[in-house]
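Worked example

This section walks through a single chain of length 396. The input is the sequence exactly as stored; nothing has been trimmed or padded.
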Amino acid sequence: MTVAKAISTNRDQTRAILLTLERLRHVLSALLTPGLNRDIDIICTEKLNIRPVTPLIGFSRNEAVTLYPKADPREAWCLSTDVSAARALSITVMLNALSVYEEFMEGASTVMIFYATSLAAVVGPKYQPPSLVYLARRWFDGSSDIRRSARSLFDYAIACISDEDSNEVIEHWQHHCEHFLYPPASMSFKKVPLVPCLQPTTEREAIQAALSLFLCGHIAAEKYSLLSASTLTDISKSIAMYLHDGQSLHRVLAIDLCSRGFHIWQHYIDAMEILRALFTLSTSIGKDSISLYNVAPQARLAVLQIASANTPLFMTTLGLDILTPPTLDHRKAVMQIFAFLVKKTRGLIRYQRPLVLQPNLPKLMEAVVRSLDPNTTTHREAVLDLATEIISYVVK
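Given that input, the structure is written out below as tokens.
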């Protein structure tokens, strides 16, 4: 949902903004469960102008809707993990939209944090925490608002689950157990691989394979010490497979996992090739790169993260690829990345990561200058403008 927050002189636009705000409040009044915390209730009523109501909220699945009458607000969070996840996600998405309005930002953020982090203590032992699988499925829905909210809830849920539960999720989603009635009088089990690199080629793009990588990958990024080398290898190979596949629908997942766990995956796959793929994706803006998700900005964020976490590998790869790239297009991509990092270093102080460039600038600048030497490189004219831009930014 997109919410305009600027004050408009257009009467129709102003009316639309106010109507949107009112709708957000109405939806939140139905989703929130007042009575759990007095301070949160005061914020909702006095700062956010959300009035408590008592509608019947239900859960829809498999073409059926179930309504849950409740007398106690805690009961709403004791039904099932899927119901808790659906409600928490809906609340988070609506509060994120409300926080676009500057005057409601602080209050919405406080309420959001409460519903994400404090329910277990408030509700008690019957509390059903949000389902990791439900939140992961919603991440694939496509809406940036839903993906961002699902991800924040998912990250907190991972932080809260025990090591035993983490291993259980990994085991289930790396090798899913299927039931077979054979012979008819008994039940036998067969483990079916779900992680993409273990799947046949025809199944690697299936949502179940991507969901498996999402769950296993993000848990591994946070709790890698719990996992075996073979499991980490399967996850790392799956990330590389999606990242290098130009037709994959799940490249954005691979980029996200590179950003979060490159320090882990680099031990199990060709780290330089992963970096080179990210360099290329960071500068891919052509029509052939248009997809449901715009991968270039996310790839650039991954590059920034890797530059900070593994500076020696990053600088080595950058320098080598400026002077001895596999293709002219790759050289252009690498120099564009260098220009991007130089601009970040100069312009946006809030991006502290690019400051790792500073002690390495002399060697990188030497590589840039050498790329213009007609005696040592080819296609000098093709990179002249980029090299000049980089030199200009550094000199300033």
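What to look for: The two ends are 41 Å apart (CA to CA).
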